[in-house]
Specification:
Length: 418
RNA sequence: GUGGGUGUAGCUCAGGUGGUAGAGCACUUGGUUGUGGCCCAAGUGGCCGUGGGUUCAAGUCCCAUCACUCACCCCA
């Protein structure tokens, strides 16, 4: 038997209905806030991700699905969406008329990590990005949007964490101070952190090893090192979240794994997913568009982990499964032929009908109707055809009425509709 | 990449110290000559994850491998 690829999964009927619902709620909310859908390719030139995400990140270093195509060009299955959206924004010169653009996209991403709860090698993200707005209010809008989406989906127990990572002006100063602090405590840190010290000192801040956390307790805080412009930006973010009534916690350990983030960064965390606590994450990336060859353009955005959101959402898939409106039990061949025509006609009118094609007994067909949770069953056999009447049974109340075969579809519509 | 746990029927799981595989649910049929859910009965369904080894004999013991899962790591 051929099995699916490790870390990949099928989303089957019975689970997919909740996904469809979440997707429709998200689309509705984004559209209400003026976001336009953008669909981007599932593969890009490797270079795009390497440059945007950062050569030294774990994603680029060891998680990407990268391979040469038949011509030998290096291509990569997208590990995230932001890079592609930026590429598209630049390539189509979407900044030319009005640089302010708001996009959302939904689709699969690929990272070759060790699978575990809430972590798959093909996983789904909902992304939203705002280009061309330097104001901190764009960051606030995104967080507000997330809070609204999550409460509409009944995800209890989630918390918004925010932080600022500074800008190219203040971050180097902070990094230097941090590296110096780390160097003074290397004997107390785990080997991973010692290794991270020079390559990516920010990562040491969110190490989960207790000893490291303790050693980093008094580490310099980025928030104390922000330049005046970044500090003001962060102040506005906090103040407007407050006035919008969006609860949040400032988490100075919140660090992003992708190099392109600047200033505001945020994460929506949950306790119910084990170690994979981030259901959504994002932040500002003012330098990325320029770095990828576009104009100097501010931007901010987020990604939601769809798989994780579906697990956290307080939704019962049963509530979204559509049951047949009608099961047609035909008892002989001629009735079956008639039933099939009715079934087709009903389908075009939005009434879901189903029937049996195996010539089963009435008892067996009734059983199937019950198992399928059909609201009504239509019974037609030789007796009914002779009388020119079919029997319509309400499966819940067990009441039965007769319906003339003549123009049956039109006659049944008012009887079946809610 | 590193650890721990688990792989037996479609599903959930039993199968001390080795002796050729079971239950519940589901499914099919019948009890009810043409009426579902409850009940009763019968039946279908397994290379016991895969490959090797030990043994007269392996679901059971040993080794390897794959998969699932949880954690580290990383992130959404």
């Amino acid at each position: 038997m051929i099995q699916l690829i490790r870390g990949f999964k099928d989303i089957l009927p019975g689970e997919v209905e909740v996904w469809q619902y979440i997707e429709s709620v998200a689309r509705g909310l984004f559209e209400d806030f003026g976001f336009k859908e953008i669909r981007i390719p599932i593969m890009e030139k490797t270079e795009l991700f390497a440059r945007s995400i950062g050569e030294d990140t774990d994603i680029v270093e060891k998680e990407m699905y990268t391979f040469p195509d038949r011509k030998g060009d290096l291509i990569t299955l997208r590990p995230e969406a932001t890079a592609s959206i930026c590429r598209s924004y630049i390539q189509h010169k979407m900044y030319a008329d009005d640089p302010v653009k708001k996009f959302y996209t939904i689709g699969p991403m690929f990272r070759r990590e060790r699978p575990q709860k809430g972590r798959y090698r093909q996983f789904y993200q909902i992304n939203a990005e705002i280009f061309g707005v330097a104001s901190p209010l764009a960051d606030v809008e995104l967080i507000f949007l997330l809070k609204n989406l999550f409460s509409r989906l009944s995800t209890g127990d989630v918390e918004a964490h925010i932080n600022s990572l500074g800008c190219p002006e203040c971050r180097p100063v902070f990094k230097a101070a941090l590296t110096e602090y780390i160097s003074s405590r290397t004997d107390a840190l785990c080997s991973d952190c010692v290794r991270r010290k020079d390559r990516n000192p920010l990562r040491v801040l969110d190490c989960k090893v207790p000893a490291c956390r303790e050693a980093m307790e008094d580490a310099p805080s980025i928030i104390d090192h922000l330049c005046p412009a970044c500090a003001q930006h962060f102040d506005v973010v906090r103040a407007s979240l407050d006035s919008l009534g969006v609860p949040f916690v400032v988490n100075k350990r919140l660090v992003r794994g992708l190099d392109y983030y600047t200033r505001t960064t945020f994460e929506i965390q949950t306790r119910s997913l084990g170690a994979q606590s981030a259901v959504a994450g994002g932040g500002r990336y003012d330098g990325l568009v320029k770095m990828l060859g576009g104009p100097d353009m501010p931007a901010t955005g987020f990604a939601i982990g769809f798989d994780r959101l579906a697990e956290v959402a307080g939704l019962d898939n049963q509530d979204f499964i559509r049951k047949p409106d009608l099961y047609i039990a035909a008892l002989d061949e001629e009735s079956g032929a008639m039933a099939f025509e009715w079934l087709c006609a009903l389908g075009t009118q939005g009434i879901q009908a189903t029937m049996d094609f195996e010539g089963r007994s009435l008892k067996s067909q009734m059983k199937r109707a019950g198992r399928n949770e059909a609201r009504f069953t239509l019974i037609v056999g030789e007796d009914e055809r002779k009388k020119g009447l079919a029997i319509l049974r309400n499966m819940k109340t067990r009441e039965q009425v007769t319906v003339p075969l003549d123009n049956l579809v039109e006659r049944m519509k008012p009887l079946i509709q809610y």
